[in-house]
Amino acid sequence: MNATLQTILSRHGDRDGALLPVLHEIQDALGYVPAEAVPLIAKALNLARAEVHGVLTYYRHFRQTPPGRHVVRICRAEACQSVGADALAAHAEKRLGCGFDETTPDGLVTLEAVYCLGQCAVGPALLIDETAVHAAVGPDRFDALIDALEPRK
Ligand code: FES
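A: This is the predicted complex of the input protein with FE2/S2 (inorganic) cluster.
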């Protein structure tokens, strides 16, 4: 973790506005922003730890614990809500046995909300692992998508 962190921090120095890009890069590299990273980020960017912690906890995009092997993001924005996203979200929580921003007990899936995936005309929409957008997802399709997830190593 430290080598990755140092590489990222060395790219940014202590220039103004570096905190958000640094947090994004760390999460992209590690899947989350570990608590141990906060003092290192603060020192490198010449910020107070509280400031780093405040930004980290303000944006729900940033995870503070490692995600599951797959991340499923269900769109909770208005257009998807109007065509059943709330029911899909309730089904997802029941099927996975975890709530939003939580991970299934077997570590397979982290469930998260997202606010628009550009599929507003064909909702409800969801995104799997940042790459696979699925539209018009009802409970049966959700179950099929989850059944198809490989337990990655
Ligand atoms: S509102 Fe869900 S994809 Fe746009």
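The mean pLDDT is 94. Residues 75, 77, 79-80, 116-120, 123, 125 surround FE2/S2 (inorganic) cluster (CB under 6 Å).
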